[in-house]
Structure formats: C-alpha cells, structure tokens
Amino acid sequence: MFVPVFLIQNWRYVLIALFPLFMIPLILIGGIFGQFQQQNNPDIGGDITGKALVTPEVRRYEPLVRQASIKYGVESHVNLLLAKIMQESGGLLPDVMQSSESLGLPRNTINNPAVSIDVGVQYFAGIIKQTKGDVKLALQSYNFGTGFIPYALKRGGYSKRVAIEFSEMMASKQGWDRYGDVNYVDNVLRYLEVETAPVSAFGFIKPIIGKITSNFGYRIHPITNEPKLHAGTDFSCGQRPVPIKAAKEGKVITAGWQDPNNHKAGYGQRVIIKHSNGLETSYAHLSKISVQSGQKVSQGQQIGNCGTTGSSTGMHLHFELSVNGKKEDALAYLN
To answer: b vs e for 179-210, b when ≥16 Cβ sit within 10 Å of the residue's Cβ?
Structure first.
C-alpha cells in the first residue's frame, strides 16, 4: 500500500490534527455511562463558592460545564469552573479550558470546546480529590501540575509564599525564567463573586444554612423515648448531602466513625475541631468526611456533607460547641 511521504515525515502532526475526531466519540460514550457513574461519584465540595462574573462568550458554555461537572462529581464547582474558563481563554479559543497540556499535548491542540471542557473538568476533579476539597490548592495545581500538591501539603497547604517557592524551584530545575503563574488563584477568583457568611461577635459562622429542628436542652429522645439532654443544635438539610463548613478556623482532632464497628451508633461519622481559647465544635451524622485528623482548616472550609449516619432519624446536622470540655448552647455563639 502506498503511503505519502508527507504522512511518514509528519506523523505527529497528523495524530494531533485527528485527535478531536477520536475524542468526541469517547466523550459521547462517556456521557451515556455517566448516568450510571453519578451515584458512585459523590460531589466533591469545597471552601469557595459564589457567582461567576463572566462574559457571554464564557457563559454560553455553562450547559457543557454543568454536564461534565455532574459526570465527574464536581457539580458544586460549576461557577468556579466558568471563572477558570474566563481566566484561561475568555471563551474565545477552541481549547476553552486550555486542557491540552493535561493530556501531555502541546497547547491548544484540542480544537473542540466540548472536548476541552470534558478533559479540563475531569482533570480538575482528579486534582480536587487529591487536595481533599482545598479549592485554592486545586486551582494552583491546575496551573502548576499535580506535583505541587504533595509539595504544598508538606508545607501546611496552599499559600502564595509556597506557590512562589515552588515556581522558583521548578524554574531553576528547568532552566527557565519562570514556571507557571504564581498569581493564578487570585486571577481566577477575580471572576467569582465569593459568598461570605455573616460572622458572629464570637467569630463563628453557621456551619450550614438550614432550618433549626431541635435546640439545645432536655427533650424526649426521638429513638429511646426517654428524657435526655440534647447537647447540640440540629439543622435540617433537606434530602441532599449539602456541604458542612467549619464554623471557625482550627485543627481537626477527630474525623471518622464514633463506633467503626457499628455505623448506626451515636454520632455516626463526625468531625471535631479544636479552636483557640478552649473552644471545640462537633459536626455529627455526616454522610461524608472531607478532612482528616491533624489537619488545619480555615473558617468556611468544607469538612464533610450532611447525612443521617449513626443514631439518626433523618438527614440533618447535629452541631455541638464546648468550652473547656463543657457543652454549651451553640446558638449563643453563632448569632
């Protein structure tokens, strides 16, 4: 069979040109199977949410971004991903998420927006899983590459200083003038109107926006039907595993099942955070935990999802606050 000399000499470029033709069918197939994957791919929340401040050129891709976000379990980050597109291309290039490099290809190899979004969202989802929901670390790692994740975690997590140090180290290794964009996090977040929760006089925010279904104090226990002190405040979360956020910055001292051998016992999956001045907060009945013991968390950072694990009659958050080991009414510190 005769093969043109041009094809032999330029086979790499031919493969790059044909790349989208191979990717589009794969994405269509992935969309079919995505419906089956969603139930096993719970949403990975984060500590930054808000409204995307983007142009119509970017906004037109929202349906594709939402579809891919659901497929890869990052639906709560749709607006953040739109802000990323605004930073990466302004919606004006075919490779709208500049995701070619995540596949080891030259920049702008992908020339189909649907392919770019699918590849980019999948890559972001993989990164944010590794960072356990730390959005700023995930954003900077999208720009630097996943090698930044262990480097940052060994140094306490993301910070501008750590980003600069990593960039200088990598630039020196590669013999380049610079490596990546050390301002990438700020550049993306300028296109996101970040939602901030009101802070109380004691410096706390509510861990969830929901109706209070049970207050602190003695009551008839809903399961045992016996009088017992309800040492926390219960917040309803409807029927969805909505994100639960740290009420104040601190250090996680407990994260896991109260009784690993009996998931129906007590608080089920719970997180306890130690704050300054002898304060501790507890978050119980979680369906998922996004932090680990010993981890430092910032105020508003997602620590898990609302659930009904342990001794629980329905989806809710049981929130407790203690001062020097003594449990007190948390609402007095939240309002």
So the answer is: bbbbebbebbbebbeeeeeeebeeebbbbbeb
Q: Where are the alpha helices (DSSP H) in the chain?
A: 5-9, 11-37, 56-59, 62-72, 78-88, 113-130, 135-144, 148-153, 160-174, 184-189, 331-334
Task: Reduce the DSSP state of residue 261 to 3 states and report it.
Answer: coil
- In 3D space, the residue among 328, 143, 167, 157 whose CA is nearest the CA of residue 252 turns out to be 157
Number of domains in the chain: 2
Which pLDDT band holds residue 219 (cuts at 50, 70, 90)? confident
Task: Kindly report, residue by residue over 158-195, the tens digit of the pLDDT.
Answer: 899 999 999 999 999 999 999 999 999 999 999 988 66
Residue 207 lies in a domain: no
Q: Which residue has the tokens 């595993």?
A: 241
Torsion of CA 254, 257, 261, 267, to 10 degrees: 110
Beta pairing partners, 217: 230
Report yes or no on 52 lying in a domain: yes
Long-range pairs, 10-18, Cβ under 8 A, ≥24: 16/105, 16/106, 16/109
Residue 46's CATH number: 1.10.530.10
Which pLDDT belongs to residue 207?
A: 93
Neighbours of 329 (CB within 10 A): 15
Do residues 217 and 183 both lie within one domain? no
Say yes or no: 189 and 222 in one domain: no
* Half-sphere exposure of residue 192: CA atoms within 13 angstroms, side-chain side: 23
Domain that holds residue 270: 212-334
- Token pair for 41: 């791919």
- Which range (44-58, 75-89, 307-321) has the least confidence? 44-58
Backbone φ and ψ for 167, nearest 5 degrees, come out as -60, -45
**For residues 157 and 133, what is the distance between their CA atoms, to the nearest angstrom?**
12
- Extract the tokens encoding 196: 């901030």
Cα dihedral 56→59→64→66 (10° resolution): -170
**Total residues found in the chain within this entry:** 335
Higher pLDDT, 295 or 313: 295
